[in-house]
Amino acid sequence: MASRKNSANACNGEYMKILILDDMDIRHELFKVVLAPHELTHVHTAREALAALMTDEFEMVFLDHDLESEEENGFMLTELIVENKIETTADFIIHSTNPEGAENMYKTLKANGYLAQKRLFGDLIQLGIEKIGAWQNA
Q: Which of 4, 23, 46, 135 ranks highest by number of CB atoms within 10 Å?
């Protein structure tokens, strides 16, 4: 994997590039509010997320498991990340309310050397995503 950027510095005044995969527009709107003024890329499908990861570098990636499409979900994305050997320094935050799906995504990413953690979406909003720096060190 590529050398790790200092994401802690990004949280201390610099803008972070953040990718958000979720199929619910209301969640995207909430992310916009709590993550302003960071640079956000919003996608709704696993394929859109994979394309973004293949063409850009992000400090953080928020992933949902249950997406609108029955053929695509967040777990499929984690498998594609591994299969395509995506080189990224991003911290993956799995915010799915599907505990089994989130666990499978988490295990797949961690087993393949990616930084990953699970957070309930409601907890992210309640705690305030501005505390990202502290979560990275958890």
A: 46
Q: pLDDT value at position 109? A: 98
Model-level pTM?
0.81
Tokens of 120: 């309930």
Return the residue matching tokens 């087993």: 111
Spatial separation of the C-alpha atoms in residues 113 and 30, rounded to whole Å: 30
Rounded to whole angstroms, the Cα distance separating 14 from 57 reads 15
**CATH number for domain 7-129, candidates 3.40.50.300, 3.30.70.1230, 3.40.50.150, 3.40.50.2300:** 3.40.50.2300
46-74 pLDDT, tens digit per residue, is: 999 999 999 999 999 999 999 988 778 99
